[in-house]
Amino acid sequence: MFQAKSIKVKIQDPHHVLQNLEVPLVSRQHATLLLGAALDGAHWVLARDLVRFLRAINPEADCSPPRTSTGPSTDEDTVNQVFMEVILTRHARKLLGAGQLRKLGSFAAHLDFPLQNFLEKERLRAAKVEDFVTALKAVHTDFEWPMPASPVTPGTSQVGGAGDEEATHPTSIGGQPLRNGGMEGAVVTRGSPADSESTSEESWWLEEDEAGLHAASVAEPRGSPQVEAQARYLLHILGQARCCDWALPLALMLGDTLVAPLVATPEALDKLMQWALAECPGYVGLLRQVQGRGSDTPSSNGAVQRSSPMEARRMTAATTVVTEGPEEGCRVS
Fold first, then answer.
1. Computed from CA positions of residues 78, 80, 81, 87, in that sequence, does the dihedral angle turn out positive or negative?
2. What is the Cα–Cα distance from 202 to 200, expressed in whole angstroms?
3. Is the pTM of this model over 0.70?
4. How many structural domains compose the chain?
């Protein structure tokens, strides 16, 4: 569970400042500046309070004559809602563009931000990845997840034997559960922050003790059980939103050899393989498995084709769920 940090400002009680900003337009300007600082500093509790304050402001209270109509008016509410959506969406784009998926999840949880809807809209814009090597490094840094130090033996992240095709997986693509890639049957079924009754991250981030119950015993270095649970939930959301570009590096970080082939393009895997061969041999075995060639030796430039009959059957079944056309997102080849 993330712990909200207290913002360091000279004034000890920011809420006291807001209560004494008597002119609504001035209140809005100052609160907006403070909200930007709170978001940049990941001070989610303060940001949530500022959002509530801004939504409650009537921007015309100090410059408009009293209304004579007693009927309900939603003009001010609509303006405030659009104003807040612009600010929050802009910050979400900033986090996504920087590859800060973990922070994006915490931001969405605390501020009741509709993360899945956002990712669906941005999958071909802000959520599009141009450099998958940089993206993979970014998620490792963001989740404090160590790079594999030695070649990963194919199947170490699988649960059960090669014939275990029915085990559940906490990540799903298009609403269908997939097989576990390292959490021994753990299934994350939490809703999005927008669907939760609580705006706090406890409503959808697994608690540390709860996550520890689902931790897999694996030889390769991994992040903490809590971090792994968070990463798997975000992978689930990315899959539901068909946001394949960021699903790929997250699935690779988790060693998920079932999801990764469904969201990867041959070009992305080729570039990742070239990088792994040159800089990170611990990823070579995993990438070979994702590409469907097992332990076969890749060509000199690292390019190999996915040819495993098992993977072909899986991807054919998933195509009917995931693919909406090459121009609309997930690319299953």
1. positive
2. 5
3. no
4. 2
